[in-house]
From TrEMBL:
Protein source organism: Pogonomyrmex barbatus
Protein name (record): Evolutionarily conserved signaling intermediate in Toll pathway, mitochondrial
Pfam families tied to this protein: ECSIT_C (PF14784), ECSIT_N (PF06239)
Principal location listed in the UniProt entry: cytoplasm
Gene behind the chain: LOC105426475
GO cellular component, one term: nucleus
Amino acid sequence: MLSQITRNVLASSVSVLLKQSLRETQSRTWSRAVHISQYRGKKNDKNDKPSALVLHAFANIENKERETFLDILRQYKNNNEMRRGHVEFIQVALKYMDEFGVNRDLAVYKSLLDVLPKGKFVPRNYFQDIFMHYPKQQEVAVHLLCKMEHNSVMPDSEMEDMLLNIFGKHGLPLKKFWRMVYWMPKFANLNPWPCPRPAPKDPLVLARLAMNKISSVDVQTKITEFKTKDIEDAIDNTWIVSAMSSVQEELLQTHSPNNPIFVEGPYTVWVADQCIDYFVLRGEAKEKKNDYENPDDVSDIKIPFWDKKEIIPAPTVHEQSDGTYFAMCATGTSSKDSLLSWIRCLQKTNPILNVIPVVFKLSSSMKDPLYIDKDENDDKNEIVQRDNR
């Protein structure tokens, strides 16, 4: 009887304890859930500003200068201590660097790289290392270094320390940095046509650099600058940069007056990041005589000691398979009238141009080409429209 009473008391106490523990567990879980919801819904003056508004700051700014770009970076760092959305922010910043004119500024690249938090992306074990720990962050850092390489910006040792603190010594951005440090000094001064940095904006200066670049194949090329206002009946008031060598003048003197020469273009040449249009004065290609001789024919053996052979000079660099190039030019307006003024200027030093017909074949909306012809009864040259029907 006593054992049964004891058993009943113990069973009731155990059931009470189980119910109490279950209530405490439920209350704790509910209180924890309420605490988490309150924590997530907690307002913070420094982090309540969404990062999307900061991303649109690059497009909404009026004065797109270096200082305003740096101000946006400082605002993002100060108002976003958790650095949320840093990958998207760097991608948008890289997109607008050209508009702000900071694509060649090393300090701006450092300040943009400083947006990434330090130490968080460093791999802690071997498996994190081989599986590319935080791939998006590493890719955006590599894109930043690629943009530096595209704009010929050489990184320094401070950027190496920053990459080491952000991604560790096994990260892909640090390996990209080491490749840049090795290769960029080797290719820095290999351009045979150097251009000042930043590139000039004056079209006349760019035209001179472009003509020097194109005509560098012949060291005897002379760059001459003309003004269309010195030519009578000229409509356009602009400049002309012409390139012509003494070898080209000799080729023009030996050209047949019955065969026309052509003014063709515009063609495109790049000077740094600037594009320049130029035109060429070209003639037809010379015919090459290929006399076939059978090397096995011994019926007429020639003794080379008494034979006088004619020495055929080798073709010059201006005589190509598609034609003979006599001159090149770049004008300020790239118009037909400026090209006509160019031919007038060349006629002063090359009188044979008064006899040779010059045909204008320009890539424009003009359907029928124009050419210069000389009338027998008139000493003045005039533009004649050719009928292509």
